[in-house]
Design brief:
The protein is an alpha/beta fold and 564 residues long. It folds into three domains: 83 residues, Gyrase A, domain 2 (2-Layer Sandwich), CATH 3.30.1360; 256 residues, 3-Layer(aba) Sandwich (Rossmann fold), CATH 3.40.50; 177 residues, Isoleucyl-tRNA Synthetase, Domain 1, CATH 1.10.730. Helices cover 53% and strands 10% of the residues. It is flat, with a radius of gyration of 28 Å. The chain is built from 20 helices and twelve strands.
Length: 564
């Protein structure tokens, strides 16, 4: 932001104090009364220069005041420099915001983002939405900013749960072919297994034996497993479609079946994997690392999640040569990822950035989410409830909400409210979901964003324009115009911050702020009734607000209506 300003400041300070290298960073002040841009460079330089910060700041101010693009410059506080730009310079700077609305060519990366991660034979629970939408949002932002991305749905399609399901299917499915089962019926079999296993302990041994046979290539069990995978993927596809979620690959755990043994042999050879109890293999960590032993192979030689994850990291490195692998997984797996990452470091592989993108838990009052007990709160049902509640909001506000397709708008509002209710909060914090808040037409909510977009779009529709240009000669800016411009100018910076910090709520909260600024501008400044350059300016600001809201919403996986 403000590249020319930064360069003039750099030259001025280097010339004055005989500096060879200097970067002057300008930021948009949080307090709008502090100008359009501010820098703390004088505070950073003063100690080494043995000068008072205010003295260095005044040198910079005196130079900047002579710039044609600067309206005012002043020293503030302990040595900050605040600058107000001319209207022409501010509007010209909006070209960066326009550019930020367009996806860049994919030149960086690749970045692998591992998210959603459902288990085969189980419907998506509401808790799956956290990883799914956070991961998809991070994929969208990275791609938009020019990164080659591999969005990876790492499906749990292997493990002892298949042994359990195979035993349940043989005992209680009454000969019904697996491909004719619904996902709910498969879940019922899984839940019944656990209920029966509490009474008959030998069932757990049968399940372990069945999975071992599956790993060893038993044809009947392989056919059963393939049928379960097909049923599950077909069922999940419609949910992902509603959430605007798209994966580049859904290679799951089973893919690494023949890739684990070389990793185990490498670990033994390097003495990273050592014998544990009953013939198992473990990784032991030193006292400084403060980590418990990490199991990588069971005593009966069966693999487990960690074994497959090690093979998966090796495969991803060798196949994609990524610069980073991001795992969007909840806080309960924090210890596991610490052990996993330390283990691959011990194996001395040339590693990309490995990052666990942690998120907290989502709670609905008095709702359990245990699949084993059969009380999982299904994501499909929560989406349906969101849409039904959105339809009620539309009915209650029929006088102010305009739409030609209430059903489509309810789907857009309902799913958007659910998703935005998650993405607008700091992912590291636990989330207590509040239907009233997320469906409100005012405040930090998807309906507020959608309504503001539709309102701004209606202005352009009434004016008969789609992409109005700013006037060549920019008139003096009112307080609300200047404030809206300042907020629009932050879009590119916000996108990069959201990417770098993996924090979607940074973008969501910015869009809410932009909605507030636009509505304040809309309610205060006449747009369609203005004349000449003033009308042209206000229409151009309205059009850019539409573009930023639409771009930002779609990066969050939301859709915004043109009429509402």
């Amino acid at each position: 932001m403000f590249v020319e300003l930064a360069e003039k400041a750099r030259i001025a300070l280097c010339d004055k104090y005989s500096l060879t290298e200097l970067t002057v960073e300008w930021r948009r002040p949080q307090d709008k009364s502090h100008g359009d841009a501010a820098t703390a460079i004088a505070l950073q330089l003063a100690k080494n220069l043995k000068k008072k910060p205010q003295e260095v700041a005044q040198v910079l101010c005196d130079v900047l005041k002579q710039c044609a693009t600067v309206e005012k410059a002043e020293v503030a506080g302990a040595g900050y420099v605040n600058v107000w730009l001319t209207p022409e310079a501010l509007i010209a700077e909006l070209r960066n915001t326009e550019a930020a609305c367009v996806a860049r060519p994919q030149k960086n990366g690749p970045v692998i983002i591992d998210y959603s991660q459902p288990n085969i034979a189980k419907p998506l629970g509401v808790h799956h939405i956290l990883s799914t939408v956070i991961g998809q949002c991070l994929c969208n932002i990275h791609r938009h900013l020019g990164y080659s991305v591999v969005g990876w749905n790492y499906i749990g399609d292997w493990g002892t749960q298949f042994g359990k399901l195979a035993v349940a299917w043989k005992k209680w499915s009454k000969g019904k072919p697996v491909q004719e089962h619904s996902l709910d019926e498969l879940l019922e079999l899984y839940v019944r297994f656990h209920a029966e296993a509490e009474k008959t302990a030998s069932l757990e041994d049968e399940a372990r034996a069945a999975f071992l046979k599956l790993e060893q290539g038993d044809k009947e069990l392989r056919s059963f497993w393939e049928g379960v995978v097909r049923v599950t993927k077909s069922s999940l596809a419609s949910i992902y479609e509603r959430l605007h979620v798209r994966f580049d690959t859904d290679i799951g755990e089973s893919f690494y079946e023949d890739k684990m043994q070389p990793i185990l042999e490498e670990g033994r050879k390097k003495k990273v994997f050592v014998p544990g109890k009953e013939g198992s293999l473990i990784v032991e960590f030193n006292e400084a690392q403060k980590l418990p032993p990490f199991l990588v192979q069971k005593g009966d030689s069966a693999s487990l999640y960690a074994t497959r994850d090690l093979a998966q990291i090796r495969y991803r490195i060798d196949t994609y040569h990524p610069q980073a692998i991001l795992y969007v997984v909840d806080v309960a797996q924090q210890l596991y990822f610490q052990q996993l990452f330390k283990t691959v470091e011990r194996l001395q592989w040339k590693l990309p950035l490995l990052e666990h993108v942690v998120f907290g838990r989502m709670r609905f009052a008095d709702q359990s989410m245990s699949t084993r007990k059969g009380t999982v709160l299904k994501l499909e049902h929560v989406l349906d409830e969101a849409v039904a509640r959105a339809a009620e909001v539309i009915a209650e506000h029929r006088d102010s909400i305009q739409t030609d397709d209430e059903k489509a708008l309810a789907e857009m509002m309902g799913t958007g409210a659910l998703v935005y209710g998650i993405l607008s909060q700091n992912r590291r914090m636990d989330l207590v979901f509040d239907w009233k808040k997320v469906l409100a037409l005012e405040g930090n909510s998807a309906p507020y964003l959608q309504y503001t977009h539709a309102r701004a779009h209606s202005v352009l529709r009434k004016a008969g324009v789609t992409d109005p240009a700013a006037p060549e000669k920019v008139p003096a800016l009112t307080v609300h115009e200047r404030s809206l411009v300042g907020t629009l100018l932050r879009f590119a910076e916000v996108l990069e911050d959201a990417r770098a910090q993996r924090m979607p709520h940074t973008l969501a909260n910015y869009l809410c702020e932009l909605c507030q600024e636009f509505n304040s501008f809309y309610n205060t400044e006449p747009i369609l009734k203005a004349e000449g350059a003033t009308k042209a300016l206000r229409l151009s600001l309205t059009a850019l607000s539409v573009r930023v809201l639409k771009t930002g919403a779609e990066l969050l996986t939301l859709r915004v209506p043109e009429r509402m």
